[in-house]
Write a structure and sequence with these properties.
It is built from 13 helices and 12 strands. By secondary structure, it is an alpha/beta fold.
């Protein structure tokens, strides 16, 4: 089998610790096992739309790598699109989407502008790789051709060799609740803290893993909330840790909670379920596609902090209920792909695209 050369176009540092960037690095690491090679080309992470100024350099780097296929990350689609449209001699283009057109973290004016630019690039793409059924449904509703979409969800395995955190995560309480997510508004950390604060003091210890500096203003509000007496000594922050350490937290916790309002896939939900953790969150985004309410987790109405408190309390204090739901979560996660499965699906799609392009170019 001839090696498939893939150039993956993204924004900023490919080593950034978010679900989308981790997806790319994990499939890139496994590419040789599937007869492929992935090289990255990044536009600088400047203020929008300034990264587009580096487009000429981007095109030169793409040509230098001589890829068989160009895979464009959704976070850079709108910025790269005009350059890719004008360039000659490019290979077939596939887009890999972890967010809808326009993104999910921007003000409305920026989102509208970016959405228009994103769609222009997607119209040029010969294949669109989608991270979840929920996101695919969103794109169907927006008029994208379903025949161009292929759902390739992330893997469930957080790390091959987990590194356990030191000490007892429960800290002499009834349960350890884990939340993995960067400190940004859409992750709903303040909602989670308010709901958690209403639990009895001996019910649970909450552990927060994630980058605390993504949205400084929001992080300041989180820190101020953590300093209040009702949360002090009941919540432990760990900052950014390695994937192996995240896997260790999954292994040692009892419950996973993330009150995210917009999660196109929610890799951490799948990873937690694979470790045997019942998951708690809003009935929004992709969570309902991963966990059935009352079976593998508890998905409560978005914004209902009282319902979130009740869900956390039940799982923290009812050992039998938690154990039953944990077993169901693990069984459901066994149906999710591993990262090897994800890589195989992705490179199969990309190889099929290149072969189709070659056939169509023949006289």
């Amino acid at each position: 089998m001839t090696e498939l050369a893939v150039t993956l176009l993204t924004l900023g540092d490919p080593a950034t610790m978010t679900g989308g960037y981790l997806y790319h690095r994990r499939v890139a690491d496994r590419a040789p096992d599937h007869g492929a090679r992935v090289q990255f080309v990044s536009l600088p992470k400047w203020r929008f739309p300034l990264p587009a100024l580096a487009g000429a350099t981007m095109i030169r780097k793409i040509h230098a790598q001589k890829p068989d296929v160009l895979l464009v990350d959704s976070i850079v689609a709108g910025l790269a699109g005009p350059w890719l449209g004008a360039a000659r001699g490019l290979p077939p283009i596939a887009a890999i989407l972890h967010q809808p057109p326009g993104g999910i973290d921007h003000a409305s004016s920026r989102q509208r502008t970016q959405a228009s630019l994103d769609r222009a690039l997607y119209k040029r793409a010969q294949r669109m790789i989608i991270a979840s059924e929920d996101l695919a449904n969103t794109l169907h509703a927006q008029g994208f051709d379903p025949d161009l979409l292929a759902v390739v969800p992330p893997g469930r395995d957080a790390a091959a060799e987990p590194i356990d955190p030191p000490g007892d995560l429960r800290q002499d309480r009834q349960a350890a609740i884990l939340s993995v997510g960067n400190w940004m508004a859409r992750k709903g950390l303040l909602d989670l803290l308010e709901s958690f604060s209403n639990l009895p003091p001996n019910a649970a210890t909450l552990h927060l893993v994630g980058d605390e500096n993504v949205e400084p203003d929001y992080a300041a509000r989180v820190r101020a909330r953590l300093e209040r007496p009702d949360l002090r000594d009941r919540v432990v922050t760990h900052g950014v840790v390695s994937p192996a350490e995240v896997a260790g937290f999954y292994r040692r916790a009892d419950v996973f909670a993330l009150a995210s309002t917009r999660e196109p896939y929610g890799t951490v939900y799948g990873e937690a379920m694979a470790a045997g953790l019942p998951v708690v969150g809003w009935n929004a985004g992709n969570l309902p596609h991963l966990a059935q309410h009352g079976v593998e987790g508890l998905a409560v109405p978005p914004g209902d902090r009282v319902a979130l408190t009740v869900a956390l309390l039940r799982l923290a204090t009812d050992d039998a209920y938690r154990a039953k739901m944990a077993a169901a979560a693990r069984r459901k996660a066994d149906t999710f792909p591993t990262w090897d499965d994800t890589s195989r699906m992705l490179f199969t799609e990309l190889r099929a695209l290149t072969e189709k392009t070659v056939r169509e170019a023949q006289p």
